[in-house]
Design a protein that fits this description.
Number of strands: 0
Structural class: mainly alpha
Strand content: under 5%
Length: 69
Amino acid sequence: MSEKKIKIVKRAERANRKPTKSKSARKSPSTMVNTVTNWVSEFQQRQRAETTKAIENLIRSRRQQPNEA
């Protein structure tokens, strides 16, 4: 198994510690927006490709069938 290190913080040290704000917390909303935007664009591209393929298949199948008129 993996070894995990645990840091022991004593009460006296805990009072002296200042909470640090990470830059990633500020960037997280924009990161989430970018991620969702990428998902949407990938989904749209996939849908377009599938639709194009389906339409081409329909057109090919209509050309191959003899006219019943």
